[in-house]
Write a structure and sequence with these properties.
Layout: H1 4-14, E1 26-31, E2 35-41, H2 54-72, E3 76-83, E4 93-103, E5 124-125, H3 129-141, E6 145-148, H4 151-169, H5 172-181, E7 182-183, E8 196-197, H6 205-215, H7 219-224, H8 228-232, E9 242-249, H9 254-270, E10 274-277, H10 279-283, H11 285-295, E11 301-312, H12 325-328
Parallel strand pairs: 7-8
Antiparallel strand pairs: 1-2, 2-4, 3-4, 5-11, 6-9, 9-11, 10-11
This protein binds flavin mononucleotide.
């Protein structure tokens, strides 16, 4: 059923799944003709931003959902997922889960949006009637996301996101790790491979250059002068947006949460809504608690991430940085 050629074709779609900082940590190994071993490239972990490995595991989950969608196009499906109980690292690879593939999968409509979905970090235009209808549709289609609207509510969340973001930026290790994954110049040899390109971050050349200085050598001075928080602010990006609190059952394996996270994002794309996660809001305990208390994440659920979303005011980035498929097979 599975062979190298089919695996390469599948991974050409799977690799379009989102991953935190675009680190693309997921690797694949074919075992026999019906099982895949999913492995983690441990050199791509984010010890400062993601010390528990939660977001890396969410990213693996998104890749698994990408696999499921790609298999469904071919009449195949995931029959079973067995997470490794006590994985050991061998070289740079750590096994994460065995995935059994079987005949009988069905085409899932969300597969059509895998190529179009992207992290939208540009501006939004005001919601029109079609946009409102899209939001209503999303609310009706998922119980994993709570949609928040209203200028005042969104501005409160934008301020909270700035506070959370600045909290993390003040940590030197966090800032330098983020800078390591930013591709601020097109001359960077890894610009098309991985990480966060200036284009993907909707940064014109001069802004990208300035960002490198603000988050790099100038940060301590700017912080002392009280200017760093203002310069790092992303509050303006929330203009005209809605916010979705993405929540999943308490105690759920992030592999499963990551699958649902990707499906929700694809569902937004299917409704013509552009979106981008704002992880700091869920990662910082103070903001996560505040959001849950003020906006009511249901009992027994935990806030996994937060999307800023809306009607995109512009076109998506032309290219998406991804590793070649051959590097994903180990
Ligand atoms: C678990 C997770 C957390 C993420 N958090 C953020 C975030 O806080 N801010 C952001 O701009 N993008 C975030 N992203 C989006 C990734 O940076 C994005 O998926 C990656 O750069 C690939 O780009 P694409 O989504 O356009 O394909 C996150 C993605 C995942 C899977």
């Amino acid at each position: 059923m599975l062979d190298r050629a089919l695996l390469e074709a599948l991974l050409a779609e799977v690799r379009l799944a989102p991953s935190v900082h675009n680190i693309q940590p997921t690797r694949w190994r074919l075992i026999g003709n019906d099982t895949l071993l999913l492995l983690e490239d441990v050199t791509r972990r984010l010890p400062a931003a993601d010390p528990s490995g939660h977001d890396v595991r969410l990213s693996h989950g998104a890749a698994i959902e990408g696999l499921s969608l790609a298999l469904g196009r071919r009449g195949l499906g995931i029959a079973d997922i067995q997470p490794m109980a006590e994985p050991t690292v061998s070289g740079s690879l750590q096994p994460v889960a065995h995935i059994a593939v079987a005949a009988g999968g069905a085409l899932d409509g969300l597969a059509d949006f895998v190529s179009a979905r992207t992290s939208w970090r540009g501006g939004f235009r005001p919601f029109d009637a079609a946009g409102e209808a899209a939001l209503d549709m999303v609310s009706a289609m998922t119980s994993d996301a709570q949609l928040l609207r209203g200028v005042q509510t969104i501005d409160e969340i934008a301020r909270l996101a700035d506070e959370a973001g600045f909290h993390f930026l003040c940590d030197d290790a966090h800032r330098s790790e983020l800078l390591r994954w930013m591709r601020l110049s097109r001359t960077d040899p890894t610009y098309q491979r991985d990480g966060l390109s200036a284009e993907a971050m909707a940064m014109p050349g001069l802004v990208a250059f300035g960002t490198g200085l603000v988050l790099g050598p100038l940060f301590p001075l700017l912080r002392r002068l009280g200017l760093a928080a203002t310069l790092a602010s992303e509050r303006g990006k929330f203009a005209n947006s809605a916010v979705a609190l993405f929540h999943r059952p308490d105690g759920e394996d992030p592999l499963a949460s990551g699958r649902a996270f990707y499906r929700t994002w694809l569902m937004l794309a299917a409704q013509g809504l552009a979106a981008c996660p704002v992880s700091v809001l869920a990662d910082w305990p103070a903001s996560s608690r505040q959001l849950a208390e003020h906006y009511g994440v249901p009992a027994g659920r935990r806030l996994v991430n937060v999307f800023r979303l809306g009607l995109p005011d512009g076109s998506p980035p032309g290219s998406r940085a991804r590793l070649p498929v051959t590097e994903l097979i180990v």
